[in-house]
Prior knowledge:
Layout: E1 8-12, H1 18-28, E2 32-36, H2 39-48, E3 53-57, H3 66-74, E4 84-89, H4 97-106, E5 109-114, H5 118-154, H6 159-183, E6 186-192, E7 197-202, H7 204-207, H8 219-225, H9 228-244, E8 246-254, E9 260-271, E10 277-286, H10 288-333, H11 338-366, E11 373-376, H12 378-384, H13 386-393, E12 397-402, E13 410-413, H14 414-430, E14 436-447, H15 449-452, E15 460-468, H16 476-479, H17 499-509, E16 513-518, E17 524-531, E18 558-562, H18 566-578, E19 582-586, H19 589-597, E20 604-608, H20 617-627, E21 632-637, E22 655-657, H21 662-673
Amino acid sequence: MDLFVHETLFILAPRGRDAEVIRYTLDRNGVKSTICTSLRGLQARLSTESAGGVILTEESLAGAGLDDLLEGLARQPPWSDLPIITLATKQAGHRSKNSSDLLRRLGNVVLLERPINGETLASAAQSALRARRRQYQVESLLAEQKRSSTELSALNDTLEQRVEERTGELTEARETLAFALESAGMGSWDFDLVHDLARRGGRHDQIFGYAAPVSSWSTGKFLSHVIDEDRSMVETALSRAAKSGGLEIECRINRCDGKVRWIAAKGRVGYGADSRPVRLAGILMDVTERKQTEAALHQAQRMEAIGQLTGGVAHDFNNLLTVIVGGLDMIGRRPDPPERVARLAQAAMTAARRGEQLTQQLLAFSRRQMLRPETLNPNRLLLDFKGLAERAVGDSITLKFDFDPGAHPVRVDAAQLESAILNLVVNARDAMSQGGVITIGSKNVHCGSAEVAGKGASPGAYVKISVTDEGTGIDRETLVHVFEPFFTTKEVGKGSGLGLAQVYGFTRSAGGYVAIESEAGRGTTVQLFLPRSEERLPHHRASSSAQFPLRRATTGETVLLVEDDEQVLAMAVESLEELHYRVIVARDAREALKHLHGPERIDLMFSDVVMPGRMNGAQLATQARALRPELKVLLTSGYVGEAGGSQVVEKNLPLLTKPYRRDELAEKLRVVLGSR
Length: 676
């Protein structure tokens, strides 16, 4: 048989010019290909023609005929494992269970995430063709072996002579098969399930690190090589194989030389006359290099995203620092007249506040912001938010509210939820230059496994908060990028590209997920799915909008200030002293505890959360209250990171978010210490 007639790849990429582009790329690299227009067309050609492999896009699997294709692939003979290169859309986080199950059912799949360059695609195609050639070589050898056995049985009258002749031929065939397996880096195995013994061939024992074949092999010996983290999965796959009739696993093993390697095994079950499984045979290969290549590709994609994020941060912060540094420089050069100094100082403060907002949006996107979750009624919060939203959209736009009167309570950070809704309202306003209606709604929904698949959320009861506009809408190409940090379609200076990123990060931090529906010219709907809280709603808080006079210290009131940054420490000391507090300074938790063990009067401890050493601010607060139960505590931070151990600060620990002004500090002190 001419093994080189199976050199054509079938392409299925129905969207746009994808198929033509793939074929052009393959032609340039000397790879023959042909285009199929549908799943049914692909299966029809596979059933009548010999293919070297298949290249298809992930979205093509949604068409009619998928079941026929899967059934056809499942009916492949034991020697055949059609290579399939799947071009997948890049996703944040892990793939959905349905998507992973579908790829597993397809069989011998190499997953490449788009965008992908031509060299990578051509290399994958050539690798698939090489693997397919080896399969046809194995088929030829198996067919020869079977034909030899049949002829031997038919020639009983010359049995002795024929046995001798055919034995030589079979030996040669086995040697050729062993050579083919060796060339492909594969090993073969054939388990006797009744006696738990196995015959092996090819490089089977070498893959496990043995220099020479071992005397015996069993399922127990195989499992002893599987690393602890993967062993349960492999045991489950082996037990299911008896029912499903097939085995296909990838796992890590500890070789006898101590090295950890990835292996892939695929086999079929043989059944006895009583329909009980008696045999499990298949092939085995080391796929460590493939796994390393995939990991390198994923790392490159992560680094590309980090580069984009870093560039965006540097650009926006350099603009803000230009305003701040330039203004302070001009004040330093000529500190008068007062009107000029006030104008420059106000511009610097505005830029600094924009920097604060940018930082909070970054932390929200990365899910590292300080959260103060509370159980609340989403309808009540949105109604309280109505005035701010109306001022944000202006007179040409009408705000409409469509609430589910029985909306479940949710447990979220109220300020972060308000910020997320405001971002969505502002985006909706900007999409309606001629005016229109923005609808803010709430609704109780139940999300099953299918709805939350790939969203990083759990099935269950949710409250859906939606913001719908009648604006210009978003085309499909843009829609896939809207949650990326620093991606914006607004003019320079009109948007940071972090609004929807903040919405995404906040929703994920709350244990939910966000969805967006839009079509160019038909408006946009953004939906926030927040998990229902089982906690009871607290009493409605009184509005904090009333203004109180600035609180200054009473005689002798003392603050223990714990801060490791010298510049922040100096600013905080000056702010507290202006408010007439006596200040005791500590630069870490150990120094603070020394003061707390001493006899000095300390009315309040004002501590940063993230500090050097083994103890952070929240842990210090716990020890401080154990030493002085009546001690008031106020924490401050702008980022928890790993030091906080959690993004959530305890309910009974007041928090002042950095950066803060003196008046904001005074207001927090008034709340914590009271107006005595």
